[in-house]
Structure formats: structure tokens, C-alpha cells
Design goal:
Elements (H helix, E strand, L loop, with lengths): L1 H19 L5 H21 L2 H21 L2 H13 L6 E4 L6 E6 L3 E3 L4 E12 L2 E11 L5 E4 L1
Antiparallel strand pairs: 1-2, 2-4, 3-4, 4-5, 5-6
């Protein structure tokens, strides 16, 4: 019974977040991907509908923030920090196109899961349109060598 309610709820939540973001843009795609990943993680941790919905909401919000505010230049810079940044040291940049600035403090790499993918946690402090935000992320290297944010 829970599964019959859960799947339509997650689909509706993903569509809602995408439409709130103004259609198929970076924010909507980030929100939908974040909600899906958060839902999976919430279900794996809590094994109930409540945990799944909380995971979807948190993942959707994080995906929306990152997808909405980081363009290709910023993602390349973030990938560089995950790849080569010294643990515990701040790496900063300012986007020349939109003026947004970021400070990222990566943590030591570790192996994750059964496939032993390298992962790193980081604190990202940003100033976007004059507003300061801080998010804590984890990224793992995919099969192509790029760092992918996890939820």
C-alpha cells in the first residue's frame, strides 16, 4: 500500500518542483534530480514513507539551489576543487559572467560503497545576488572521471 502512494507522490513532487522553477531549466532539473536522489536515500535510511518524503524534499531543495545558481563555469571550478583541492583549505572564485562568488572547503577523499568510488565532502559558501548561502555537499567521481554531487 505504501508503494502505491509513494511513487505517484514522488512523481508529482518532481513535476511540481520542475514547474516551480520555470520549466526545463537548470533549477528544475536540479530539483527533480535532487528530489529523486533524496527520496531513494530517505527510503534506504528510514524504510518508510515519511523518511522518503523528507529525503525528497531536502534533496529537491539542495538540487534546486545548486542547479539554479551554478552555471557551467562554476561546476568546472567545483569539479577542479573536488579533484585537486587541498583538504581543509579554502578555494575561492568569482564567476566573471554573473558576479557570483564561491568559497569551497573540501575534506579528505574516501572510498564509498561496494564500487569503491572516491568521494569528498565539502562546505560551499556562496554569495549570489548579494545573499550569502552555505551548503554542505558530498561528491563522488563517476565512471567518466567527473565529480557528481550526491544527495
Amino acid at each position: 500500500m505504501k508503494t502505491t502512494i509513494l511513487l505517484p507522490t514522488l512523481l508529482a513532487l518532481s513535476l511540481f518542483l520542475s514547474s516551480c522553477a520555470g520549466g526545463p531549466n537548470k533549477a528544475g532539473i536540479g530539483a527533480a534530480g535532487g528530489a529523486a536522489g533524496g527520496a531513494i536515500l530517505g527510503q534506504a535510511i528510514g524504510h518508510n514513507t515519511e523518511a522518503t518524503l523528507i529525503g525528497a524534499a531536502v534533496g529537491g531543495l539542495l538540487g534546486y539551489i545548486i542547479g539554479n545558481e551554478m552555471d557551467k563555469y562554476d561546476r568546472e571550478q567545483l569539479n577542479h576543487v573536488y579533484e585537486r583541492g587541498t583538504s581543509g583549505q579554502t578555494n575561492a572564485w568569482r564567476n566573471p559572467d554573473n558576479g557570483n562568488s564561491y568559497q569551497v572547503i573540501p575534506q579528505p577523499a574516501y572510498s564509498s560503497g561496494s564500487n569503491n568510488r572516491p568521494c569528498r565532502k565539502a562546505e560551499i559558501q556562496s554569495v549570489i545576488d548579494g545573499k550569502q548561502e552555505t551548503v554542505y555537499t558530498t561528491a563522488c567521481r563517476d565512471t567518466t572521471g567527473h565529480w557528481q554531487l550526491q544527495n
